[in-house]
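ingest -> validate -> predict -> emit
validate: passed (alphabet ok, no gaps, 303 aa)
predict: started
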Amino acid sequence: MNFQKSQNSEQFYSLKSAADQGSFFQLRNVVRRVDVQGKDDITSSYRSHMNFMKDCLAAFVLGSCLDMFGMDSLDGCPNKFHIPLFLHLSSPEDQYAWVKQLGEQLVQKYVKLDEEHILTTTLTERTSEMDDQELLIAEMYNSDRSQFVCTCSKMYKTKGHFRRHLKENHGWKLSKQEKTTSEVDHIAVWRSSFMKLTLLLHVLDTEDAYEYGDGDRIFRNAKFEMLCADVAHHTKYRLWLWRMQAYECAILGERDAMEYKWNYTAITYGGKGKNIPNDNLVETLVQRIKKEKNKRTRIQCYT
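emit:
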């Protein structure tokens, strides 16, 4: 989980994206979260960074819901979806099926975006429009005079001045060649940001699995985490996740593997949803031992 939150910040938190709407750094400045400083301070300020990422995810989900339902505000009424009149009288299974259907539509429309298809379609339309404009401008070029001759009889030697004349005096809407996606920040658009936050959705699901001690989800998500660790070149996490799955799948016997799988968390305060990973518990105990040792050392030195 530490590796996942670090990877989210490394990919999506950039000090150069202050002007990009929807980026983590831009949102951090808008809500004035001064306790969020990026990947360098994640270890020391984990809680503040994680809460900020959760708030961003909730905002993206809320915005996508408002757009999908056709609502102008939280107090508005849906224009594109209507709740069935007798939904509250239906069985819990039917209500769950209806909500699940809406969730699937939300995921398909706002999360699983085909960036390559969208980029290809947009570039094709933009290129076609620019080609038509360039052809019209080329037809106005007089090779004998070596000048661009406008319909209002004004002549220009340079193409740039001629384009500005067409734009200011004749109302031409000239397309500009924009930067490609490889040159701009990948999270400049909020929908693109939301799609890339699917990794954060996985982090939250893993965090919930640890809190409730759900061994099935913990080991199922570990397979995806190992792939992410490999992509991010985190060899230490990749080997740790591989060893974790190897113990459960091959090394331990059936009974020991079951105990290993369902005792991967520990509870310290009691109650549901309060489990923590065993490695976090070990780190907590080590810190307590160090503090107690330093305390006793100071007492002995004083005496």
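The mean pLDDT is 77.
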